């Protein structure tokens, strides 16, 4: 059997390992940490509070199911999920509260009642983004943007007519402000820039297709939480013969001429015909390929945002909250200017609260809730994070306390914090940037690192720092693209 080595067991690396095993490779996954998952890990805090450490939103679940069916397994034997009846609860500083129902008709009625936007107007918008998504996804998300045959595919014939409506020449915010007059709905739609760590006042209008995933396809909750995704896929990988080796960081990608021929760790050398890096592309080149010429223009692209997360045990329940909750800032543009231009956190940040105990009661003690409280922040550039953590904590507590009419500080029973420094140290995400580079210009998608390199045969890349981007669905698609580029047989590998 031809051998493959995967560096890192984030969701992209796990998915790539499964796809390569199905292709007939003997796959070894080498992971620095004590367990799998990358950002998709879990932990518990004293008192019985369980948390998913990183990703909290699950869309396009068929991309997970696909891995099981590819291996001739029934997905439901391993992994189950449900569609959320409510996507998000939104709170604005003026006291407005809006429930984003999963059902489009219910959501449209809510928007009309609370924000005064006619239902037909919202329906037309959602129908438009659905049409544009279906016209472009196969070209821009499911295939490499760096291969000629992508542009010779019949899918391009569907994509070309949609290009004028994609918003390539405008920003997300400008497009949303033209579409809707109410600034609260504009802010709600601008928020989707954060799904890949970008700024809606700079990012191209093409990112306005992201809401299609939630409002037209749906948001989902995995039984057992987000960690269950990684857990079920690792189980599948092990059944397929994938070897997962933990606490064994790769120190070098070995090359012979113009080919990657394996990797080296402190424990030994692993020869392989195929090497897949699930590590952020910057440390992949800087640390594992120091003698190879690096794609400097790509590596120097502006970083995406990071996150400051407070994990709180809360000593009561809040019926007005759901799984996903957003408490908006007063001045959204100023908030993003602080993140991407000033490199700090605004005094009034938008706050996201995820509460998995709403769907998995055992994630918190009876009568309590587990709050994952996140603020979008700049990547690590040497800021005084200890000071920012304390300042932001007080601002977050003040904001939520005012919105809910409680003394939130008095309800916090236990706490843990994850900041950009920890994210970088724990996940090898360069500078703690969650999504590699940002998408704050119209060419960003094409400047993101491809899933292969022409410099070294046999070397491939997956994960949030490469095409098509970060987040669970795109990381899964990066594995699909990379695996499709890998030869099927050892004879093809040698050729």
TrEMBL record:
Pathway annotation: Carotenoid biosynthesis
The GO annotation for biological process reads: carotenoid biosynthetic process
Which keywords label this protein? Carotenoid biosynthesis, Oxidoreductase
- Show the InterPro entries listed in the entry: Amino_oxidase, Carotenoid/retinoid_OxRdtase, FAD/NAD-bd_sf, hydcarot_desat_CrtD
Keyword presence, Protein transport: no
Instruction: Give one GO molecular function term.
Output: oxidoreductase activity
Q: Name one Pfam family in it.
A: Amino_oxidase
Under the heading Gene3D superfamilies, the entry gives: FAD/NAD(P)-binding domain (3.50.50.60)
Enumerate the spans annotated as Amine oxidase domain: 11-486
Family, as annotated: Belongs to the carotenoid/retinoid oxidoreductase family.
Record-given protein name: Phytoene desaturase
Please tell me the species this chain comes from. Rufibacter hautae
């Amino acid at each position: 059997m031809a051998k493959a080595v995967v560096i890192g067991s984030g969701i992209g690396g796990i998915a790539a390992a499964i796809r390569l095993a199905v292709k007939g490779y003997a796959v070894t996954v080498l992971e620095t940490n004590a367990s799998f998952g990358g950002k998709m890990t879990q932990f518990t805090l004293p008192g019985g509070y369980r948390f998913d450490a990183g990703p909290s939103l699950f869309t396009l679940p068929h991309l997970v199911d696909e891995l099981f069916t590819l291996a001739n397994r029934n997905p439901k034997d391993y992994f189950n999920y449900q569609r959320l009846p409510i996507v998000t609860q939104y709170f604005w500083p003026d006291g407005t509260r809006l429930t984003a129902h999963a059902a489009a008709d219910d959501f449209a009625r809510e928007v009309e009642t609370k924000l005064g936007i006619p239902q037909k107007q919202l329906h037309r918008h959602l129908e438009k983004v659905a049409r544009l998504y279906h016209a472009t996804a196969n070209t821009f998300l499911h295939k490499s943007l760096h291969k000629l045959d992508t542009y010779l595919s019949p899918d391009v014939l569907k994509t070309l007519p949609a290009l004028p409506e994609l918003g390539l020449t405008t920003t997300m915010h400008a497009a949303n402000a033209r579409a809707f007059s109410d600034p609260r709905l504009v802010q709600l739609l601008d928020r989707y820039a954060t799904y890949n760590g970008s700024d809606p006042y700079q990012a191209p209008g093409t990112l306005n297709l992201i809401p299609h995933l939630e409002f037209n396809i749906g948001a989902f909750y995995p039984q057992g939480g987000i960690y269950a995704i990684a857990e079920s896929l690792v189980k599948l990988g092990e059944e397929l013969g994938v070897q997962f080796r933990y606490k064994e960081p790769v120190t070098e990608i070995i090359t012979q001429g113009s080919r990657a021929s394996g990797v080296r760790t402190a424990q030994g050398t692993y020869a392989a015909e195929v090497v897949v890096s699930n590590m952020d592309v910057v440390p992949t080149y800087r640390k594992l390929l120091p003698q190879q010429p690096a794609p400097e223009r790509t590596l120097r692209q502006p970083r995406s945002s990071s996150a400051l997360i407070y994990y709180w045990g809360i000593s009561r329940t809040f019926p007005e909250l759901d799984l996903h909750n957003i408490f908006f800032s007063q001045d959204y543009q100023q908030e993003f200017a602080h993140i991407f231009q000033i490199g700090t956190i605004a005094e009034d940040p938008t706050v996201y609260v995820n509460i998995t105990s709403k769907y998995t009661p055992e994630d918190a003690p009876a009568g309590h809730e587990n709050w994952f409280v996140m603020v979008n922040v700049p990547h690590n550039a040497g800021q005084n994070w200890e000071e920012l953590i304390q300042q932001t904590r007080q601002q977050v507590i003040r904001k939520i306390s005012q919105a809910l009419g409680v003394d939130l500080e008095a309800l916090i029973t236990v706490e843990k914090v994850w900041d950009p420094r920890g994210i970088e140290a724990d996940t090898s995400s360069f500078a703690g940037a969650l999504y590699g580079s940002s998408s704050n210009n119209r060419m960003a998608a094409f400047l993101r690192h491809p899933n292969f390199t022409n410099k070294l045969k046999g070397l491939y890349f997956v994960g949030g720092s490469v095409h098509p981007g970060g987040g669970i669905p795109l990381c899964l698609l990066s594995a699909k693209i990379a695996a499709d580029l890998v030869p099927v047989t050892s004879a093809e590998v040698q050729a």
